[in-house]
Design a protein that fits this description.
- Helix 4 packs antiparallel against helix 5.
- This protein is 84% helix and 0% strand.
- The longest helix is centred in the middle third of the chain and has 46 residues.
- It is mainly alpha-helical.
C-alpha cells in the first residue's frame, strides 16, 4: 500500500481531505450540533467523548422534540456520514506522507488501522443514534450503553490516531531538518 497511488500523492490527499474534513467539522460544530444544543439545552451525543447513560440520553431525546429529532437525523447525521471517511483519509494519508521515510513501517500500518477504526466507530455511533431516535420513546437501556461505549471508543481511537500522526510528523520534521543541515 505504501508504494501505491495513496503514498505517491499522500501529501496532496492529506491536505485536500483535511480541508474538507475540517470544513465539515466546523459546519457540524457551529451549525448542526450548535442548533441541537440550542433547541434541547443538552449536549448532543456526538459531543460526549466520555459517554452518557440512559438518563442523559432520555433527557436529550425528550428535549429535542419531534422536530429536533428529525433535524438530528436529516442534518447532523447527513453531515456525519461524510465526515468520518474524510477524517480517516486525512489521517491515513498524513501518516503515509510523514512515515514514508521511517525505517519501521509498523507505525504506518497502526496509523492506517486506527484511522480506519475511527471511521468505522463513528459510523457505528451514527447508526446507534439513528436507532435511539427511531425507537423513541422506547429506547432500550442496552442500546444506550452500547452506543455510549462506541462513542467512548471512537473518542479514544481518534485521539490515538491524531497523536500518532503528530508524533510521526514530528519525527519527519526532525529528519528533514537533520538532512537540511547535512
Amino acid at each position: 500500500m505504501t508504494n501505491g497511488i495513496l503514498s505517491k500523492h499522500a501529501g496532496t490527499i492529506a491536505v485536500s481531505s483535511g480541508v474538507i474534513a475540517a470544513s465539515l467539522y466546523l459546519q457540524m460544530v457551529t451549525v448542526t450540533l450548535a442548533h441541537i444544543q440550542a433547541i434541547s439545552g443538552q449536549v448532543p451525543f456526538d459531543m460526549r467523548p466520555i459517554g452518557y447513560g440512559p438518563k442523559e440520553a432520555t433527557a436529550l431525546l425528550e428535549s429535542l422534540g419531534v422536530e429536533g429529532r428529525e433535524y438530528y437525523l436529516s442534518r447532523q447525521i447527513t453531515l456525519d456520514t461524510l465526515y468520518p471517511v474524510m477524517l480517516a483519509l486525512t489521517l491515513s494519508a498524513a501518516i503515509l506522507w510523514f512515515g514514508r521515510h521511517l525505517p519501521n513501517k509498523r507505525l504506518i500500518h497502526i496509523g492506517v488501522a486506527l484511522s480506519t477504526g475511527c471511521a468505522l466507530l463513528d459510523y457505528t455511533e451514527n447508526l446507534g443514534i439513528v436507532a435511539m431516535i427511531w425507537s423513541w420513546p422506547e429506547v432500550s437501556v442496552v442500546l444506550v450503553y452500547a452506543v455510549s461505549t462506541v462513542t467512548i471508543l471512537k473518542s479514544v481511537a481518534t485521539t490515538l490516531a491524531v497523536a500518532l500522526v503528530l508524533l510521526v510528523g514530528l519525527h519527519w520534521t526532525r529528519l528533514s531538518l537533520t538532512n537540511l543541515r547535512s
